[in-house]
Amino acid sequence: MRVQFVDAVARELSNDARSVFLTGDLGFNALEGLQNQLGPRFLNVGVAEQNMMGVAAGMALTGLRPWAYSIAPFATYRCLEQIRNDICLHQLPVRVVGNGGGYTYGIMGSTHHALEDLGALKPLPNMHLYFPCSNNHVAAAVRQMADLADPAYLRLAISGFADDRPALSEHPTTLTRRYAERPGARSRGLTIVAAGHAAQIVNRMSKPTEDAEIDIFGIARFPLDLGLDRDLRESVRATRRVLFVEEHYASGGIGESFAAAVAADVDAFSVMSAEYRKGQRYGSAAFHLNQSGLTPETVTNAARAMLG
Fold first, then answer.
1. Inside any domain, residue 162
2. Rounded to two decimals, what is the model's pTM?
3. Which SUPFAM superfamilies does the record cross-reference, listed alphabetically (predicted)?
4. At 108, phi and psi to the nearest 5?
5. Domain count of the fold of the chain
6. If 0-12 CB within 10 Å is exposed, 13-18 middle and 19+ buried, where does residue 234 land?
7. In terms of Cα–Cα distance, which of 2, 10, 4, 67 is closest to 33?
8. 201 pLDDT exceeds 70?
């Protein structure tokens, strides 16, 4: 998603002289074109992510509109106090961008995995979270973030089960995508909801049973707005069974919030999420997804179990 992000942010910043771009000494072989385009509006603050957030907040107080870029664990965990105190409590238009959500940086180990980033930022006041489902979803998120007067976080990722298929539809405001639609209204229905790039895992699943009717949605923004996401809400109310998939820990994840939002409408709700085990081995993103039981095959099996 990084290539698509750079293209999208370059377009946005070319139209807004108040916007500036900060990087924590990351983006080699990716940000050089943006640096040339922006000139003095591009600032490499060095390996000093906490300071970068303070600088971004100070710039925002002068009327500038900063984007602050690093890899996801460095942009969130390392800087949480600065994001909370300097940016969110002052409701400043700083856009934090974290590349490498979930298991993207698989072989580099747990220090580089971002499996709690959304959960860490979700409770912060005035914060908006964006987690695109695929490469072709990034530009829409960047466009919305560019217009915000509030803090925002963008989670970029590479899936271990890459799938960039187009959606059947995309809500213009919530950015929720529909990837599959039940052909009828028989009793064997299930709503599968994926947070961000976990949609790519879901989209590669097999049909769990011959007569199964499944709706598949990918959500990409928090706070949730199921009042606007009518198709999603109607699907949940019709099937009354939800399988939620996310490349994030279950505790503090988007699935936790989604379950609370639809609690009155469902009879069964199950979350498939990332896991950590002491002594686990390290490998590619796909390796970690297999180790966590987050694969197209396991999603198929979970759907089959929920359908009964």
1. no
2. 0.96
3. Thiamin diphosphate-binding fold (THDP-binding), TK C-terminal domain-like
4. -80, -5
5. 2
6. middle
7. 10
8. yes
